[in-house]
Amino acid sequence: MNNSVRTSRFLQVGQVYTRDDLRAAFHIRDATLNNGIFRPKGHASVWLFVTEEKTRDRRPYRDKLEGNELLMDGQTLGRTDGLIESHRAADLELLLFYRKKRTEFPKAAFRYEGVFRYVSSQGENPTRFTLKRTS
Questions:
Q1: Distance between CA atoms of residues 22 and 40, nearest Å
Q2: If you average pLDDT over residues 22-31, what whole number do you get?
Q3: Tell me: the pLDDT tens digits for 52-63?
Q4: Answer CATH for 7-133 from 1.10.3720.10, 2.30.280.20, 3.40.50.300, 3.40.640.10
Q5: If DSSP codes are grouped into helix, strand and coil, which group holds residue 27?
Q6: Alpha-carbon distance values, 30 to 24, 35, 38, 39, 89 (Å)
Q7: Burial class (CB in 10 A: 0-12, 13-18, 19+), 33
């Protein structure tokens, strides 16, 4: 695969996927797939895994999908903020995998919500992002 592969071409909006489903479908061996923000090698895509209601053992990021708008905290150290903020300039798509809580779907899966775009951000450690659905 080259960097022009857009993962969205192979996913169906509304479909539920586990990380293992995605790992198998796209031949991913990278352990960072388990992070909330992941860029698959050889893809022009950034995958956002968002759980609205966190369990007590997780960092209390504030994330909420309301209609076509996602309000989301970036990673605490901000290492992936640039992927989100400059995704259009880098010709990367932002794909949202979302769930209300870890137990919403079997095997801790996520619903694929589609392609989103960066709108704005504020603050740092973590940065607060506003993203809008494009598809």
A1: 10
A2: 94
A3: 987 766 666 789
A4: 2.30.280.20
A5: coil
A6: 12, 10, 10, 10, 25
A7: middle
User: For the chain, what are the domain ranges?
Assistant: 7-133
The pLDDT tens digits of the residues spanning 30-49 come to 988 998 899 999 999 999 99
Residue 26's φ and ψ, nearest 5 degrees, are -115, 10
pLDDT score recorded for residue 69: 97
Which candidate, 84, 64, 83, 62, places its Cα nearest to that of 73? 62
Name the more confident of 53 and 96: 96
